[in-house]
């Protein structure tokens, strides 16, 4: 393949220790939904229900990573990517969510870890990337306080089985998104709605983040432990006091609510009054048990949001003005392409006391055209390059940022959006499972060489 021009950006500009990687998640790539003793997850159930996923797509096979992992690991190697982030499917290793353990599931992840290490690729495990075992959902899922114990039991099994070889761990992925979409809006699994479900899930997930991290620390003292948060740059639609206040509330909800208790700052109830309702579920000593001294925080930023005050939207009194309404360039997710968001987010999160910040996801869904065996996804290539420039800008100004992971290795199952939103550096033909490295993948390969 021809070399791709990388002359204007050099990986050396980011420093020798800067971490480069690519991110994935079990449910979005593995398929093999019931193979070798795997139990059902809430996403297996949700995708089987009519009308939940665009075009009736499901993830029974997804990218078939369960069977084709070796081929995909070879591709990561070919792309010169030194760090691979993947998640463990809880119900693959604990079919009912708690003991007993399914040895076949453990064997599967051992094969992945060993293969990565044999290729010189560092494994980064996400423990929870949204696929709660269905049997636990039957008991209330994250709305049940017992979920904190179930999660710790699962973390213990992962640490005991993989901790001898895996150094890098992420406890929970994007709690704000999966509790908001899955327990308040009902548009993601498990499809629950309402403020009560949401706030209970919020508190239990936050407790589980800290207790899961403590379990890891106890069982793998030398581990590099982090957890990931979605974040976004917020701007008011106008400079009226109403819009400015609305933007502050949305910023509190999307950027502060989940991280601040983890950092020992408590829930930001003063800036978002509805969070006071959390006090119904906070038990004595909980506030002390929410904090953990993470080695790193993973930030995942894709866009900015523009916010307008609105009396019609309950609890938050604000609405997001979509990219479409603002007539700005957007991705297939409808998210505005706005690279400076990453710079602003880095600046903002640098004001907290965080040891290391890693961008654990960034990337874009654009339509790909496969022609003569090639995919010229120039928009994605530019998206990544433009975001890397924003990281450089932040670094030059002295802000802390220690790594960048692209979302995602291959096109995959984009939750309620199904397969139409393609985020991969590698194109997947979902009929044949054929992989084709896109222009963006070739660019990243040459950049990293
Ligand atoms: C966030 C999630 O962690 C991931 O699962 C998702 O596919 C990407 N962002 C893109 O939406």
Automatic annotation (TrEMBL):
It comes from Flavobacterium pectinovorum. This is Beta-glucosidase. GO terms for biological process: cellulose catabolic process. Belongs to the glycosyl hydrolase 1 family. Substrate binds at residues 28, 129, 173, 302, 407, 414-415. GO terms for cellular component: cytosol. It is an enzyme of class 3 (hydrolase). GO terms for molecular function: beta-glucosidase activity. It catalyses: Hydrolysis of terminal, non-reducing beta-D-glucosyl residues with release of beta-D-glucose. Keywords: Carbohydrate metabolism, Cellulose degradation, Glycosidase, Hydrolase, Polysaccharide degradation. Coiled coil: none annotated. The active site is at residues 174, 361. Its EC number is 3.2.1.21. It holds the Pfam family Glyco_hydro_1.
């Amino acid at each position: 393949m021809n070399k791709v021009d990388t002359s204007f950006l050099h990986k050396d500009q980011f420093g020798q220790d800067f971490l480069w990687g690519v991110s994935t998640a079990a449910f979005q790539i593995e398929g093999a939904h019931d193979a070798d003793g795997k139990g059902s997850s809430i996403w297996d159930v949700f995708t089987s229900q009519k009308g939940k996923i665009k075009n009736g797509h499901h993830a029974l096979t997804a990218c078939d990573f369960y069977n084709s992992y070796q081929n995909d690991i070879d591709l990561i190697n070919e792309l010169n990517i030194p760090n691979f982030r993947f998640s463990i499917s809880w119900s693959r290793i604990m079919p009912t969510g708690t003991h007993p353990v399914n040895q076949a599931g453990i064997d599967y992840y051992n094969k992945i870890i060993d293969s990565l290490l044999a290729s010189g690729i560092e494994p980064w495990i996400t423990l929870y990337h949204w696929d709660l075992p269905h049997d636990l959902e039957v008991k209330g899922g994250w709305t049940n306080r017992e979920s904190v114990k179930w999660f710790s039991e699962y973390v213990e099994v992962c640490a005991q089985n993989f901790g001898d070889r895996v150094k890098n761990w992420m406890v929970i992925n994007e709690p704000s998104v999966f509790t908001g979409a899955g327990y308040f809006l009902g548009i993601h699994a498990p499809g629950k709605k309402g403020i009560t479900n949401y706030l209970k899930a919020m508190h239990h997930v936050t407790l589980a983040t800290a207790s899961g991290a403590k379990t890891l620390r106890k069982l793998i003292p030398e581990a590099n432990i982090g957890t990931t948060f979605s974040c976004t740059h917020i701007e008011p639609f106008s400079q009226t006091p109403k819009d400015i206040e609305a933007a502050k509330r949305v910023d509190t909800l999307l950027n502060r609510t989940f991280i601040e208790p983890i950092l020992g700052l408590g829930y930001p109830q003063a800036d978002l009054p509805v969070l006071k309702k959390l006090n119904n579920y906070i038990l004595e000593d909980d506030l002390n048990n929410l904090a953990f001294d993470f080695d790193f925080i993973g930030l995942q930023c894709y866009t900015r949001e523009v916010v307008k005050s609105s009396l019609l939207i309950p609890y938050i009194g604000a609405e997001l003005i979509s990219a479409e309404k603002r007539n700005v360039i957007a991705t297939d997710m409808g998210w505005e392409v706005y690279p400076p968001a990453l710079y602003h987010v880095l600046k903002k999160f640098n004001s907290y006391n965080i040891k290391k910040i890693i961008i654990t996801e960034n990337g874009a869904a654009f339509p790909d055209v496969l022609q003569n065996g090639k995919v010229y996804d120039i928009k994605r290539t530019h998206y990544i390059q433009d975001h890397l420039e924003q990281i450089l800008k932040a670094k030059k100004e002295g802000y802390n940022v220690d790594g960048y992971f692209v979302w995602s290795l291959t096109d995959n199952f984009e939750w309620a959006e199904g397969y139409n939103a393609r985020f991969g550096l590698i194109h997947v033909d979902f009929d044949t499972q054929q992989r084709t490295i896109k222009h963006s993948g070739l660019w990243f390969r040459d950049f990293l060489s």
